[in-house]
Specification:
single chain, 156 residues, alpha/beta, Ubiquitin-like (UB roll), 5-stranded mixed beta sheet, binds FE2/S2 (inorganic) cluster
């Protein structure tokens, strides 16, 4: 077993050696959209590793390719579904923001200010910034997103 630490929520979790970070996120009841079903081709399980990058399996070719188009990718970026824990001392920082799968999921927030950044499920870009009002016209503009997500799901 290995101990993981999660920031900024300041929680820890014991996980079996070789388990992936996505399993750990789900075990902590953290909402992960998993738009690609854990295949390493979307942004919804993107995390930053604040410590212990060398205690994870190395990035896969697919992971590097996907991270290449994720907005906000940094040297400490990993896709949780692709990174397996092999040593002690991994500190995972959860990204700020909420991924959406369908534009309709935002309808209940129409006319309100976004409580957090609302993120694109495939590339992680900010669709609606924290504090901005969620307008009907913006949601209309985002409808193409539904098609993108469907195409991604059909391709895996
Ligand atoms: S769930 Fe899509 S890349 Fe991890």
């Amino acid at each position: 077993m290995k101990t993981l630490k999660f920031e900024p929520i300041n929680e820890t979790l014991q996980v079996p050696t070789q388990s992936d970070l996505l399993e750990a996120l789900l075990a902590k009841d953290l909402k992960v959209l998993m738009a690609c079903g854990g295949k390493g081709i979307c942004a919804t399980c993107h995390v930053h590793i604040k410590d212990g990058m060398d205690k994870l399996t190395p990035r896969t070719v697919r992971e590097n390719k996907t991270l290449g188009f994720i907005t906000g990718c940094a040297p400490d970026s990993r896709l949780a579904c692709q990174a397996r824990v092999v040593g002690e001392g991994v500190v995972v920082e959860l990204p700020e923001g909420m991924y959406i799968e369908r534009v309709e999921d935002l309808m209940t927030y129409l006319g309100q200010r976004a409580q957090t950044n609302i993120l694109h499920p495939i590339n992680g870009s900010i669709l609606i910034a924290k504090g901005k009002i969620i307008t009907r016209s913006r949601l209309e503009e985002l409808k193409a997103l539904n098609v993108e997500v469907q195409q991604l799901k059909q391709s895996v």
